[in-house]
Every structure is written in structure tokens, then in C-alpha cells.
Amino acid sequence: MRFFLSGIVATVILTFYTLLPACAQSYGLGFYSHEVVQDKRTALELNLNKVSDKDNLELSFDLSFLPNYPVYFGYIFRLIGDDKQNIDLVYDNQANIRHFKIIVGERLSKISFNIDDKLLFERWNKLRLLIDYKNNKLTVFSGNDSFSESGLHLQRSKNYKLLFGANTYRRYQTTDLPPMKLRDVNIMQEGTLLANWPLSEYEGNVAGETINQNNGTVVNPLWVKAHHRNWQLEKEFTVRGDASLAVDAGKEEIYIISPDSLLTFAINNTPQLRSEAYSLGKQSLVPGDQAIYANNKLYYLYVDQKAVATFDLNSKRWNKAFSNNATDNGHLNKFFSKADSSIYTIGGYGQLVYKDSVKRYNIASDKWQNIKTTGDFFTPRYLAGLGTNASGDTAYIIGGYGSSTGQQIVSPRNLYDMVRYTVKDRTFKKLFDINTHNNEDFVFANSIVISQKDKSYYGLIFPQHKFNSRLQLIHGSLSNGTYTLVGDTISYKFNDVHSFADLYYIPKSGRFFAVTLFREAEQTRIKIYSLLSPPEPLAGNSKIAAHSFYWLIAGALVVLMIFLIIYSRNKKPAAYLQTKRPYQPLSPAANQQDPHELNADDDQARLMHKNTIFLFGDLQLFTPDGNEITKYFTPLLKELFLLIVLYSIKLDRGISSEKLNEILWFDKSEKSARNNRSVNIAKLKLLLDKMEHCHLSKDTGNWKIEIDYSKIMVDYHNYLSIVSNKNKLSKEKIIQLTHITQRGNFLSNAEYEWLDGFKSEISNEIIDTCIQFANSVPIAEDPEFLITVANSIFYFDPVNEEAMIIKCKALSQIGKHSLAKNTFETFSREYKTIYGEAFNRDFHSILE
Fold first, then answer.
1. Measured between alpha carbons, how far is 795 from 737 in angstroms, rounded to an integer?
2. Which domains does the chain have, with CATH numbers?
3. Does the keyword tRNA processing belong to this entry (predicted)?
């Protein structure tokens, strides 16, 4: 039986690893080059010491060049032995056809070669350098080619320094290097691997070594993996009035249309934003309308007015102007079809109605037409994602929010269907429903990106029922409902027609771009983010795409459990089986209690200790499973967490790297402080991943902990919501406040100089809030509760005169005169002990 069970387990495990979907493994180290000043260029320093005196040494690595840079010149690496002899690989695009060259000492060797540009810029290329000391021979292997030279007077060495890119090492220093990326650096000797640097880090200045932990150091790193996983905020700015978006993927430009000017974000290695005012003055834009770049022109769609304005990029003028009215087609989808040179719009929302109409604007005739469609029923919707094939004759529409009748009042719901629309036959065809991963509903940003090569799509999803929402990139199949979460998330403020998000893919630069708009106070805030393709799953947060995969594994586990139960029953006595406890379901309160609703009955939520961060009393963090992770915080990690979380919650802006260095690593050099910060930030991210709805970001340039307060209860956040508006205090809010402070003073066991200001402010705020409420309630109305309020004040200030007066009056009101007198006398003694003088009022005067 035991061997049979082992076979079952092995089968399950083997099945699991066999069926795991393959994920793109994009990693390596990119190098900043001539496009930045010398101090900002990338340097990688690796060391190998006490090397055996043998006949050969082999260095290998994968190399690729970063495209679209103006200068490709400089050192790939310098290998220095015992500070005596250098062997260099350089690249010179000004030379003849052989751009790669080997230098030994101060002599240019005869070894030179080239790598085809398509391979060099689009793929990883394996390079190997074999140093044969016995035969005094140097050989370079590139692909299937090899290049050798003998008689180079090669000198055996014990200690090697391997410098990639720029370096400041003694007489070998240089700032010339080509824009490149590097990975899997290996050093071998006689078939033995001496060192391996994968260069697979996400951040920091340490290049981990896997054989002997002989880590290298990096200056100004451009970690490839991070740029495939973490969205980079490329630009953030504000324009007056409304704004619309369009993209020209061929020219690599994103257009932002504002009422008075056209802003162009040029997508290149040094992105730049330029603004050009319209030559004929302001243009009326309709809130919620959209633009599109098609047929080598920029179009603004006035859908409700069935009109289109065309922008001349040379004269900087619109050919038409229209009245500014509210749109009846917010968040519609649009696309351009080359087949008939027409712009199509689908769906939308306005006046409490979801739309299913398809409209066509023919560019040649300047005419609009309502298209009568056939095929499957297309549910009226908005907030869907749309993408097309290369020719634009087939559109894919996914998800959204709507209802079968189109009426908002009749059962609106989230939609998860993938529908294909064919221009030629004007037909809708439902392909499948996507498999949602969790219970949270979501919709899509306006565009999805179609990959015809592997029949897949990329789209941005977000929960539309939250104002402080987050955009998440997914990669799904065009043939079934599977998809995978890729990349990290983007902060996104969603307020229906006041918000807009779109997704673009620029093939030339191999990057996705997410653009968000948020309109408030007569202006629009625009944020542009980029992510290298292919995007990586976020570590610790990737989801298995195939729904069938889940069921297959679940079935295997069920079979395993059945056999384990049978085996267990055969091993245990019958008496044990008869004493099993009956199943007892959780009470409705345990299932339904929301830990974020702090009221008089929230003890159950506190006992559950799930999805909770306590800052009053002892610091405690509880995961969704109820596990406390505070024990994993070292003293330094604890202080780092508190610094970031308090500045995030209180000020909503986070804290800068410079401020962290100033507080935590003031005694270290800038380089050492940066290294320490990078290492501890990485550790903190891993811990916060366990909280699921709480993560560390740097979207604004500051370190900030983003928390979904609808999922995680943070007592400090709840405290701030109470004390921030003292004009709307109520008994219920004061009860909530006392429940928060029952755990103890704010971070009672944390003693940091920078924290004193927070603690002092919180104590004062609590006292002021309680006193303001107490003074607003007549003593006779609720004396018992006012006694509780006074006691809460005494907890923070034992000689607070107003609290003493409130309590004495309340006790006298309910006839407890002796207790009132005792309260006064206790207060008077404490007062004299602290201040060294007697309290200057008597008991009877305070009761008047």
C-alpha cells in the first residue's frame, strides 16, 4: 500500500510540473551607455580569486544590443589577470564589417568578427572566450564560428577581475561602452564551473553568484527582468480641460489631444514630450469622446453629432470645429479597417443606457452609417476591450459592463465573453467566456493588443466598483477562456466618464504602453507607463491560466486523498473513528463580519485576525489566512516598514529614497546606503506579498505602500478617518475610536526619534476629538457614555483638566457623588506630583 501511494504522489507531482504553463524568462542586465552622462553609465564588476594554475580558462555569456540608440562604441568587457594583463572585447561600429575586436594588453589582435544585426538586436547571442595558456592561444566562439590567434604571450593568473561596460578600476578605467544587455556569465576551467552570475535580479546593486556566493557589484543597473515585470512611469503631467488619446505605432508616438494644443509623447530611448498650440485657437472637445490615428491622419470622433474632425500635423490645425455637448456614448470602442478605409465604433454608455450599436465612418465619403449586424447576440455594454488583426477587418471585443436589455435599471452585470466582429459580413460571433480567477468583478481598459503569431491577446483589467482601483495586465488565448496575470499593477483612479485607460503595443521598441486619464477640477491628469515585452508574471502573484489544469490537478488530489483516507482508516483503531467531532459550521457572524466596520460588535473581527494591520498597541500584521507575519520583521525591516506605511497613510505620498537613507543609513556612504536599501526593500516586498492586497510601489517616485482598505483593516487609517472631520462627530464614531485605542498607545513598543512627532500628534488628536464631542453633548443626556469618554482621555493624559470636569459632572449626574469626589482628589494628587504645585480649583467650583 505504501509503495502504491508513493506512486500516486509521484504521478500527481509529475502531472503538475508537466502541465505548468510556460512563462517568458526575460532577465539580464542592461547597460546605460552614451545616451547618458558618464556618471550614469552602467558598470558590472566581477571577481574571481585563487584560481588554480591550469592550462585553460573559459569565459562565456549571452549578449544582445539595445536597439535604436545613436552610438554603438566601446568595451563589452575587460578581463584583467593579476593586474598585469588585460584581454578586452570591444565593439566599434565605425570600423569595417568586423565590428567586434579582441585586444590583448595594448595590442589589437587579429581576432575580429561580426554578428548579424537581426540576431544582435533581436536575440541573445552566446559568446565564449577560451584562453589556452599551454598553447598560448586565444579563441572566440560566436554561434557556429570560431576565431583564433596564437603567440599572444598569455600570462597565467591567480586572481581575475572581470569588468563589463564602464569601470573606474585603476589604469583600466573607461566610460565607453555600447548600449547592451548581458546575462548568464560563466567561468569554467577544465570542465568545472567556477562561477555563474545569471544576472536575474529585479533590483539592487548586487549581482548574485550561484556557485560560491561570490557576488558582483553593479553601478547604475538596468535590470531587464524588472522592466518586464514592473511598469515604469515614463511621464506624468496635467492639461487644462478634457483630453483624448491616439497612437501612431509606426512613428512611435502617443498623441494627447487637449482643447488648446496637441501634445506628442515620442517613444524612444530618451522619451520626450512636446506641445504645439493649435494655429486656429481652441478646439471644443466633448467629455468622453475619443480620437484615433488611422490612414496616416489624426481623427477626433464626435460620435453623438455624427461628425469627425481631422488634424493636419503640418499646419497644426483642425479642419472642423463642433459644439461642446455631453456625450451619449462614453467608453465606446473604436477601430480602423483598412479593408474599406473606415472607422468603426461599437457599444458605449449614456443616459442610463448601454449601447450595442455599430457605427461606421467612411473616410472617403465623410459619411456616417449605422450598421445592421447579424450573427450572435451582442450584449449592450461599455468598458470593454477591443483589438483587431493587422488589416483591421476582424475585431475582438472582450468583457465590459452592461445588460441584455441595454437598460441600466434592468439587471446590469459584468460581462466576460470574447466576441469576434467581422467587417466583411457584419457578423458577431461569440467565441468563449473567459475563466475568472477570483470573485472580484472586473472590466477592461479601452484597447486590447492582438498577437496573431500565437493567437493570443493582452489586455488591462480593473475592478470598476472602486475609485482607488488598479490596472492589471493579462495575457489570454483567442481560442479559449484561459489567461494569466502578467506584470505588476498600476494605480488607477476610476470615476466612470471622468476616467479613461488605454493599452498600446509598439513593436519597434518591444514595449507595452498604458496611458491613464483622470479629469477633475477642469483639468485632466495624464500618466504614461511602459513595460517591456514579453511581460513576466509578478513573483508570488502569478496565476495558472488553464481552467482545465485546475480541475485535472484537483481530480488527482481527490484520488490521492481517497487513498490516504482508506490507508489511514486501515491503520487507526475503530474507537478513534467513533470519536470524531461532528462538523460545526461557522456562525453567520463569523462568515459575514466585515473587519473594516469598527462598531460595538467588532470583537469577532478582532478575534479572527485576518487581513489586518494593527499599529495601536503592538505592531501586528495578519494575512488573509490569519497568520501573523510580524515575527518575520527584523528590527531594521520593522522600522523601514513603519516609515513607509506611516508616510503613505498619513501623507498619501510615501517617502523618498533620500529620506530613508537619512534616517536609516545616515552613517553609511551613498553606495553602501543604496545597497542596504535595495536589499531590505526586496525583503519587505516579499513579506507584503503575503498580505495580497498590500504592496510596495514607487509609481510617484517615492516609496509608498498601496493598501486596498476594502480588503485590509488598518486601525491607523480608520483612526484618521474619524479625527479628520471633528465637525461630524457622533457617539458611534467615538465608540469606534475607543475600540481602536483599547489595544494601547500608538506603536507603544516602538521607540524612534522620527516617530515621536507621530505619537504626539495622535495623542493630541484623540484628546481633542473626545473633548470636542463631550462638550457637544449635555451631561444629562448620556452621562454614562461621557464617563467612558473621559476615561479614554485619561489614558493619554492623566491630568487633563477638561476630562476630570466632564467625569466629575457625569458621576454627580447619576448620583455617584463619592466617586466624583474621589476622581477629583486623584486628579489633584497627580497634578501636584507632575507640576509641583497644587491644583488651583476646588471640587464644588468645577461642578457649577
1. 13
2. 1-21+557-571 (no CATH), 29-223 (2.60.120.200), 230-532 (2.120.10.80)
3. no
Interatomic CA distance for residues 563 and 12, integer angstroms: 13
Residue 606 pLDDT > 50: no
pLDDT tens digits, residue range 40-87?
999 999 999 988 888 899 999 999 999 878 889 999 999 999 999 999
Contacts of 745 (CB under 8 A, 6+ apart): 616, 617, 759, 763, 796
- 359 or 791: which leads in pLDDT: 359
Residue type, 554: A
What pLDDT score was predicted for residue 728? 77
Look at residue 22 and tell me whether its pLDDT is greater than 70.
Answer: no
Tell whether the model's pLDDT for residue 253 goes beyond 70. Answer: yes
Select from 73, 22, 286 the least CA-distant residue to 176.
73
Contact, 331 vs 382, CB < 8 A?
yes
> Residue 36 above 60 pLDDT?
yes
* The three grid cell numbers given for residue 678, joined into one nine-digit string: 535595495
pLDDT of 136-166, one tens digit each?
A: 999 999 989 999 999 888 999 999 999 999 9
Q: How far apart are CA 587 and CA 503, in angstroms?
A: 45
CA–CA separation, 135 vs 56, rounded Å?
9
Question: Which is more confidently placed, 584 or 182?
Answer: 182
DSSP for 429-476, written as a single string: EEEEE---SSS---EE-SB-EEETTTTEEEEEEE-TT-SEEEEEEEEE
Which three cell numbers mark 766?
A: 484623540
**Bond prior to 595 in cis (omega within 30° of 0):** no
- Report the C-alpha gap between 732 and 730 in whole angstroms: 5
Identity of residue 723: V
Average pLDDT over residues 269-281: 83
Which of 20, 14, 8 shows the shortest CA–CA distance to 559? Answer: 8
Burial class (CB in 10 A: 0-12, 13-18, 19+), 581: exposed
Q: In sequence order, what DSSP letters do the residues of 479-492 get, joined into one string? A: SSS-EEEEEEEEEE
Q: Tell me how crowded residue 216 is: count the other CB atoms within 10 A of its CB.
A: 22
* Total residues belonging to the chain: 848
| Whole-structure pTM value | 0.60
Cα first-last separation, the chain: 87
pLDDT at 269: 63
Alpha helices in 95-223 (DSSP H): 117-122
Q: Which of 71-85, 559-573, 830-844 has the lowest mean pLDDT?
A: 559-573
pLDDT of residue 25: 59
How many Å apart are CA 772 and CA 769, to the nearest integer?
5
**CB crowding 706-735: b at 16 or more within 10 Å, else e:** bbbeeebbbbbbbbeebbeeeeebeeebbb
The CB-side HSE value for 86 (13 A sphere, CA atoms) comes to 21
Instruction: Tell me the C-alpha distance between 730 and 150, whole Å.
Output: 89
Distance, in Å, from the CA atom of 692 to the CA atom of 812, rounded to the nearest integer, reads 52
Q: Beta 374-375 vs 427-433: how paired, if at all?
A: parallel
8 Å CB contact between 104 and 138? yes
Averaged pLDDT for residues 265-289: 84
- Range in 254-258, 313-317, 551-555, 582-586 the model is least confident about: 582-586
Residues 6 or more apart in contact with residue 589 via CB below 8 angstroms:
601, 604
Can you say whether residue 417 is alpha, beta or left, with left for phi > 0 and alpha for psi between -120 and 50 degrees? beta
530 pLDDT band, cuts 50/70/90, is very high
β-bridge mates for residue 707, sequence order? 694
The torsion defined by the Cα of 92, 96, 98 and 102, in degrees rounded to 10, comes to -50
Give the three cell numbers for residue 745.
Answer: 498607545
Neighbours of 177 (CB within 10 A): 26
